[in-house]
Design goal:
The chain has about 475 residues and is an alpha+beta fold. The chain has a single domain, classed as Outer membrane efflux proteins (OEP). Helices cover about 65% and strands about 15% of the residues. β5 and β6 form a beta hairpin. It is elongated, with a radius of gyration of 39 Å.
């Protein structure tokens, strides 16, 4: 019975994360290991863990590189609006066969004229600058504005990725605290079970207790010891997972510091919380930027039907001798281009851009609803967790009083080990409920910080030992 309670408790923390949370945080449970492992465990506070994660987490690094690619696309779109200058220097050698070009003229006999069939070889040199200057292209202008908004969205994605790294680190760190608390509670229960077993054995040896009391207490002790092995294994695996999240050196062990799980955190009015969330959530601001980008892209697709104007020209020098016998030459052209028939290509571009805009607007509306849900859920969880911690703390005290009375009754020979074992299990259950409640309270703090868009500042503020 005791082992079942403890074993189920050893995995209860990880089960509290929803499928959506687990899926969202999965890309942020990998990293680039940093540094060299030491032979002794290193101390690791939650603030240090967050800072390591923000340096080495693979999900964040990937988002940063994606943002660089988006900025490159913006520069590419900008280049379509700017003049392009190219230079050219060359020497040309040439020989022409006039007959091959159709010039097969034979002078009349006796005219004295002689027309060669081969001209050359001869050579000349030239140096020139070519320029292409866009004058008006509304499609390119709109596409640049779309690229600018996409760049803004990508930068906000990086900021949101930092938030998710903090959440992943916070959840992992708090899970280890829960594992450690559960191990300490189980060890205390083992000490208590061992005392009950030794007392039952002593009474049996003296003839004041039956053998089943000894067996019953021994079974309970062995079950608790078995649960401890499973919990220590779970702690080791959770520490490995946190190490992967924050880029610890391979094989590096560490010791955590308790981030004051009982520090109270009150909620806030729902209207104020929602206002803060919509203003701070980077994913929401990025979604708004993507709607603007899609709107500009649609305008750009429609503008493909508009006329465009550009100027082209070149200026240079040419001559048989580029330095001594050359003269300036130039050309200049200003033109307007317009579409006559494109086989439906522009219509296709418009339909695709319109579909992307619809998707962007739908995603924004859905995200707004998700933020409303996140904020309300986080506030409810915080309120519930605070109340559960208070009740669980009270229940631990009552369970311990009951256990002490059962021990006294057993020592006085009034009852057998059934009552003592049941009381001990009640203490174990109460300890488990308190540990779970404290874990859920800490998780609720992280979830509220995430829902409000202040995870990076909030986690450090809520759990730092150096709080003001």
């Amino acid at each position: 019975m005791g082992s079942q309670a403890a074993s189920s408790g050893s995995s209860s923390g990880s089960m509290q994360l929803s499928a959506q949370q687990s899926q969202q945080l999965a890309p942020y449970q990998a990293s680039i290991p940093e540094g060299t492992a030491t032979s002794t465990p290193i101390p690791l506070s939650i603030e240090e863990a967050v800072n390591r994660g923000l340096r080495t987490n693979l999900g964040l690094l990937t988002n940063q590189q994606a943002s660089r690619q988006t900025r490159a696309q913006r520069l590419q779109a900008l280049s379509e609006l700017l003049p392009k200058l190219t230079g050219q220097i060359g020497i040309t050698a040439q020989q022409i066969n006039l007959a091959a070009m159709g010039f097969n003229f034979t002078p009349p006999p006796g005219s004295g004229f002689s027309i060669p069939k081969i001209i050359g070889p001869y050579s000349y040199g030239g140096a020139q600058v070519n320029a292409t200057v866009p004058i008006f292209n509304w499609s390119n202008i709109s596409n640049y504005r779309a690229a600018r908004e996409s760049t803004k969205a990508s930068l906000l994605d990086v900021k949101d990725a930092r938030e998710l790294v903090v959440v992943a680190v916070g959840f992992g760190y708090l899970q280890i605290i829960e594992d450690s608390a559960r191990i300490l509670a189980t060890k205390a229960e083992i000490d208590s079970d061992n005392a009950i077993y030794l007392n039952a054995k002593r009474r049996h040896d003296s003839g004041t207790a039956i053998g089943i009391d000894v067996l019953r207490s021994q079974v309970e002790l062995k079950q608790r010891q078995q649960a401890l092995v499973a919990q220590e294994n779970q702690l080791a695996k959770d520490k490995l997972l946190l190490g992967r999240t924050i880029g610890l050196p391979l094989g590096q062990d560490f010791l955590i510091s308790d981030p004051s799980p009982n520090v109270p955190l009150s909620g806030m009015p729902i209207d104020e919380a929602l206002k803060q969330a919509y203003a701070n959530r980077s994913d929401y601001q990025a979604a708004k930027a993507r709607v603007l980008a899609a709107e500009f892209s649609l305008r750009g697709s429609k503008a493909e039907r508009y006329p465009t104007a550009q100027a082209q020209g070149d200026y240079g020098v040419e001559g048989l001798n580029l330095f001594n016998d050359s003269h300036g030459v130039f050309t200049a052209t200003v033109g307007v281009s317009f579409n006559i028939f494109d086989g439906g290509r522009i219509k296709s571009d418009i339909l695709q851009s319109d579909a992307q805009l619809t998707d962007a607007r739908n995603n924004l509306a859905n995200l707004r609803g998700q933020i409303d849900y996140d904020v309300r859920t986080a506030l409810l969880d915080l309120k519930s967790a605070n109340e559960q911690v208070e009740v669980a703390q009270s229940n631990v005290g009552l369970a311990k009083q009951t256990l002490q009375q059962s021990r006294d009754r057993f020592a006085a020979g009034v009852t057998n080990t059934v009552e003592v074992v049941q009381s001990q299990q009640s203490v174990a259950d109460a300890d488990e409920n308190l540990i779970s409640a404290q874990y859920q309270l800490n998780i609720a703090k992280v979830e509220l910080a995430r829902a409000l868009g202040i995870a990076e500042q909030g986690v450090k503020k809520y759990f730092s030992h150096n709080r003001p």
